[in-house]
Design the sequence.
């Protein structure tokens, strides 16, 4: 449960806070352009739907865990200050520690173009320093309008350089994975996790007919998820990175996960905006670094 006094951040007829039966607090946005739901636990967007769309942009599993210390399966989890396995092999949890803790609401704003902005943050504590011994302030700026824009900002508040990897681990809703292709990564090299991170080169658009877990490098343009079943294209524009991760668990892995239904792999695809694999980020003492993703539906 969020212990903040959140009433001060509400915007009449536009933004409200809702306490859910499982104990989490949601930011519910309904403006002239879109609906969105954001969990203050995990700083995680769970839903975004422009008013002109029938289907949500995002997938959230019906079996997702909603409990302290667990990550929510779906939406846009935040992987930080590392992506993937513990980079120092100390037995720490994969994908860092901010996707399973409470974030503070810092500000909300109704923008002139009809969009709504929410700013949330998390800072270092004695608990986080036991996991990762650095001072920091991490903020996320979420702008809900005709597009969904996310800025993830790392502030190094300590006296030493820090090195991070990170990702917006976005789960997209698709109609039928067998009719989906991803464009924008043709000719790019990728590390194939399923082949011990061997380097491969993408030939043509990405199609999914088996488990996929790849880190693409040298990304330098927009990516598009062409979803023929739903008759839409999702465009992903990014800044502050040259890495993209593409993941679908397929059938065997989906069945092995307690927070996914057996058939969920058919209606979801993760295309992640990231600094991962060989791309890490140095953030000098007193400085900041921003990773940005902007999603639009065509």
Sequence:
């Amino acid at each position: 449960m969020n212990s903040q006094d959140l009433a001060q951040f509400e915007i009449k007829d536009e933004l409200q806070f809702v306490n859910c039966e499982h104990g989490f607090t949601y930011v519910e946005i309904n403006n002239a352009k879109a609906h969105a739901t954001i969990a203050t636990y995990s700083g995680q967007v769970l839903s975004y739907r422009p008013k002109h769309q029938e289907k949500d942009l995002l997938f959230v599993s019906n079996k997702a865990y909603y409990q302290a210390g667990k990550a929510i399966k779906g939406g846009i989890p935040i992987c930080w200050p590392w992506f993937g396995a513990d980079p120092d092999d100390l037995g720490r949890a994969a994908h860092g520690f901010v996707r399973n803790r409470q974030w503070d609401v810092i500000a909300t704003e109704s923008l002139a173009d009809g969009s709504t902005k929410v700013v949330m943050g998390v800072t270092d504590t004695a608990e986080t320093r036991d996991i990762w011994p650095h001072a920091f302030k991490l903020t996320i700026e979420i702008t809900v309008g005709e597009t969904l824009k996310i800025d993830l900002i790392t502030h190094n508040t300590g006296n030493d350089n820090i090195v991070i990897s990170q990702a917006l681990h976005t789960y997209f809703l698709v109609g039928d994975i067998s009719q989906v292709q991803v464009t924008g990564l043709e000719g790019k090299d990728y590390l194939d996790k399923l082949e011990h991170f061997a380097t491969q080169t993408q030939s043509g658009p990405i199609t999914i007919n088996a488990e996929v877990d790849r880190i693409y490098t040298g990304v330098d343009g927009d990516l598009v998820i062409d979803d023929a079943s739903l008759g839409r294209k999702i465009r992903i524009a990014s800044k502050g990175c040259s890495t993209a991760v593409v993941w679908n668990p397929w059938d065997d892995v989906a069945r092995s996960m307690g927070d996914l239904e057996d058939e969920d792999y058919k209606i979801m695809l993760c295309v992640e905006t990231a600094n991962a694999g060989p791309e890490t980020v140095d953030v000098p003492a007193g400085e900041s670094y921003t990773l940005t993703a902007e999603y639009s539906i065509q």
Observations:
- Helices lie at 126-131, 250-256.
- The mean pLDDT is 97.
- The first strand starts at residue 15 and ends at 19.
- The first helix runs from residue 126 to 131.
